[in-house]
């Protein structure tokens, strides 16, 4: 099965499941011993994304405040470290 790192990695570390491969282009520092699919099938990459949603028609000042707080929180060193341990230690958004 395919699953996201934050939910699968703890079970793999506990030996409840066996991680066969990662679908990202490069190995994650959270699971450096787990090879990537791309190491067998050149060019393979499948990633996931996570999002935060607000109800339709949320006023722009509230959306802007939520965005600012999310960026601030994700920049905190302890949050960055926790994300790394979950296999989410990178972000392609230039704001982070």
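Q: What amino acid sequence fits the structure above?
A:
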């Amino acid at each position: 099965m395919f699953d996201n790192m934050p939910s699968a990695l703890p079970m793999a570390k506990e030996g409840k499941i066996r991680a066969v491969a990662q679908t990202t282009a490069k190995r994650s520092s959270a699971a450096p011993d787990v090879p990537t699919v791309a190491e067998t099938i050149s060019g393979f990459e499948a990633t996931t994304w996570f999002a935060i949603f607000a109800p339709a028609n949320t006023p722009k000042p509230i959306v802007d405040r939520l965005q600012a707080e999310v960026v601030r929180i994700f920049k905190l060193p302890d949050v960055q470290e926790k994300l790394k341990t979950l296999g989410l230690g990178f972000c392609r958004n230039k704001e982070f």
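Q: And what stands out in the fold?
A: The radius of gyration is 16 Å.
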